Amino acid sequence: MPRLLSPDDACIGVDVPTFGGKASYNGRTIDVSDPSHVKALRSVGYVPAAVAGAPIRSGGYSCTACGFSAFFKVCGRCGGSCVRPDLAA
Ligand SMILES: [Zn+2]
Question: For residue 51, how far is its CA from the centre of ligand 1 (angstroms)?
């Protein structure tokens, strides 16, 4: 399932309107299983945590700027700061 990153560090949760009410996601890094939710979240600025289908390595860091999966806190691709997905929430 796609993993999305919040566009804003202050945003730690989001609700997506659905036919049955709403779906709530918590955390700055969220796993979204419904493709329509992914589309809705992308439209409001959420970005894929893993580009080109690259899986997030457990225990590693994820770049907040480009989504690169890094081993270190500084992104090896763009130099941005990285967060641990498992610690972001
Ligand atoms: Zn980066």
Answer: 11
